[in-house]
Design brief:
Blueprint: E1 6-14, H1 17-28, E2 35-37, E3 44-54, H2 58-70, E4 75-87, E5 90-98, H3 102-114, E6 126-132, E7 149-153, E8 155-162, E9 169-177
Antiparallel strand pairs: 1-3, 1-8, 2-6, 4-5, 4-7, 5-6, 8-9
Helix pairs in contact: 2-3
Length: about 180
């Protein structure tokens, strides 16, 4: 019997180039060996993490995502600031947080109820800007500032993620446009 290989999948909102550039500029102000900045091409907002899926199941998943996207209106999303994420009192990540949005929530719930994957909670919309290695950063008591920026979400994208020693490699499998 031939074993199908699995792909690690997630659904995300792509960021416009201007937003990526703005987010990337933050790293120039905070150089430190403990900060591992997300490469610009990896910046996105995860809407739903699916997990490992056999390749032969991807077309069916794509059809489900397409049905959700074709019934979704375009909506604005606002990145309103940065947030320092801590675990056990120690900073572990820097996020660009999105303003809570009913449209994002509805999209996330629809994906969560339709697709396999993590169904324990709805993702808080954010962009992971940096991960903080296991080093002391006593001066990092607050994250860098971010000018509020708004953009229209016009589609979602199904990504495959391949973990490497450096950064994950994300491959866009298919984009699903929203209704105008």
């Amino acid at each position: 019997m031939v074993q199908m290989s699995a792909q690690r999948l997630f659904v995300a909102i792509d960021l416009p180039d201007t937003v990526r550039e703005q987010l990337t500029r933050i790293s120039a102000y905070m150089e430190h060996p403990a900060l591992r900045w997300t490469p610009p091409e990896n910046l996105h907002i995860t809407v739903h993490f699916i997990g490992d899926v056999a390749e032969d199941k991807v077309p069916a998943l794509s059809e489900m995502i397409d049905r959700i996207a074709s019934g979704t209106q375009r909506f604005p999303l606002t990145l309103e600031g940065t947030k320092l994420i801590k675990k056990r009192g120690r900073p572990v990540m820097i996020w660009a947080s999105a303003k809570p949005s009913a449209e994002f929530h509805l999209l996330a719930v629809s994906l969560q109820q339709t697709l396999p994957g993590d169904s324990r909670r709805i993702a808080e919309p954010h962009v992971t800007l940096a991960r903080i290695r296991n080093q002391s950063l006593p001066h990092l008591t607050s994250p860098p500032s971010l000018e509020m920026t708004c953009f229209d979400v016009r589609h979602i994208t199904l990504y495959a993620s391949r973990l490497t020693k450096g950064f994950p490699v994300y491959t866009a499998l298919k984009s699903f446009p929203f209704v105008r």
